[in-house]
Specification:
about 200 residues, Tetracycline Repressor, domain 2, 9 helices, elongated
Length: about 200
């Protein structure tokens, strides 16, 4: 059984996360102070530092949650088919859909590399999404649906392309239009590697 103290701690942590998600989706990381975050949450700086070691730690936790949700959505999108090509296409389409959504776009793509630094941001992104790309490439190779290249090289090429496309979508004045164009491009790239006629 959870103790009252543990329930309170979890409630406090979740309140900070919910408040940060809302505020970081509306405002730039640099424009939000730790004081404003805790005041809006109705909590103290002590609570922020206890749970997240400050504003940056809280921001990273929000990014981590959004990346976890994105990866789960991709798994659900690809889980209804066993065809490797269809799984890859569905996974890419779901990922690009996520990239066009406000919270993910504003927090993970536009602010994440700046607030966390490129290296840390990439580490988090790779942790959640890199394995999905590698698994998709390996399945396509195993089924001989794409031409043979080293799996790590192919995964790196697709991960890099998807990363750059996600940033392009985030920066576009019309993210939905950019997402649709990016989806068509990735389909063409996959088709270009195919071993059989499309």
């Amino acid at each position: 059984m959870e103790s009252v103290r543990e329930k309170y701690a979890e409630s406090t942590r979740q309140t900070l996360l919910d408040t940060a998600l809302r505020l970081f989706a509306e405002r730039d990381y640099a424009d939000l102070s730790a004081e404003e975050l805790v005041r809006t949450a109705g909590l103290t700086r002590g609570a922020l530092y206890h749970h997240f070691d400050g504003k940056r730690g809280l921001f990273e936790a929000v990014v981590n949650d959004l990346e976890t949700q994105a990866a789960q959505r991709i798994r659900e999108a690809i889980g209804t088919t066993s065809d490797p090509f269809e799984r890859a296409e569905r996974g890419v389409a779901e990922f690009l859909d996520v990239c066009a959504e406000r919270d993910y776009r504003q927090i993970v793509l536009l602010q994440g590399p700046i607030a966390l630094g490129w290296q840390r941001w990439r580490e988090l992104d790779q942790r959640h999404l890199g394995g999905l790309v590698t698994d998709a490439v390996r399945a396509l190779l195993d089924a001989e649906l794409i031409r043979a290249h080293p799996v790590e090289l192919l995964a790196s090429a697709f991960y890099g392309a998807l990363t750059e496309l996600s940033l392009t979508i985030a920066d576009d004045d019309d993210p939905d239009r950019a997402r649709a164009a990016a989806t068509r491009l990735i389909r063409d790239l996959l088709g270009g590697l195919g071993t059989k006629p499309a």
